[in-house]
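Hi R.,

Here's the chain you asked about this morning:
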Amino acid sequence: MRKCILFCLMGIFSTLGLRAQKTPHPEYLMKYYFTAAEGAKQSVVPPASLVNKSQNNLASYYPCFQPEGLRFNQFPSQSQTGFDTILSIDEMISCGPFLAHRTEITNAEYKAFLKDSDWIKSNLGFTVAQLKPDTSVWSPFGATAERAAVINPYTWLYFQANTYNNYPVVGVSQIQASAYCQWLTHVLNTAPEYASLQAALNKSNLTLVAELPTVAEWMCLYDMTIQQPTRDGVVNKKIAGNYFRNNQKMGGGLFAFLQHQETQGVFVAYAGMRTSRGLNIQNEMSESLLKPLPVEQNPAKPYPNLSHLVGNVAEWTSTPAYGHLYNNKTTILNTNGQLIENAYQQVNVFDFTGYLVDAESLKHHYAIKGGAWAKDFYYLDPMAIFFMQSNHRNNHVGFRTVLHFYPKSDTQTRP
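And here is the predicted structure, written out as tokens:
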């Protein structure tokens, strides 16, 4: 009798569509909004004679300021066209003038930093061991039916072997990248090989500071070195799909750049993707890559100024998440999987409650831009962004430096 009742109940539940039904816990559908606007550094446009003379050893830096010497670079941000939980806010962005390293910082350049152990210990408070790249970011190759797990050879080769001196340094945190910038500032202002630069700085009453770029500065670099060439009619109209649409405001500059690079035999290293996010696109070369490309992968014309601003390794910035990242609680996902208005919405929707970490910890998360060989194609979108804690290290994030020039009287009070 009990068995009959049980079978009857199972039949009723099955008929009603209740069989194996899961009732998820109500939760907010969180969307995060990022603003790139921040206080522009009060840097100044250096004299052309200081920047252009080869004896000043600044040929490896690209001058990122308007030719007419305007005080600030200002431009509208693009609309974000990818799919992600962090969405950009359309806004006007401005930043002071600066010079940007034409390539990502290499293993060789970072090794030169580590060799200056006495200065590091006296001025940075770190030991050299604390600032060495984390080589364990190269994950072992998984076990197969034929063999056990194998240690990735890049664990002892990528940073240590001179063969890879011209490859971008990885396995460095935002803290380590910032330490490198402090050392580079010291070198540029004191080392004998930069005597000509130092004399030119003194003559102009300027001091030079090496730093990580802000997000606004990174986006300014993109605007001046990749986006602007499309204004000369370079945009290719034959790109399939609509993941990035063929116009300036929707990423056309990036698509034109990628296609032009690869048709000229200059590869852009990124992971590609085959997802439902929009466009089924794959960079076949990067699928076989187990590491980044060398930094001096010359951009194809008409993009001759910077290498690997997008792709290869993503790049640390000096922009913290705190004060730039907001979330939205106006919509919730109900137990039926429907998006409905949140009846309990508070007046102030911009807060950090429910983020992966608390608000205090969020201050120590920094923005990373540019996409990477091990990240989805989506992150090549100039507006795409992701955040990592300042001590985070992996095998697809590196950095490039920027130089700011300040009047000597302002160096103690600059922001």
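One quick note: The chain has twelve helices and 16 strands.

Cheers,
M.
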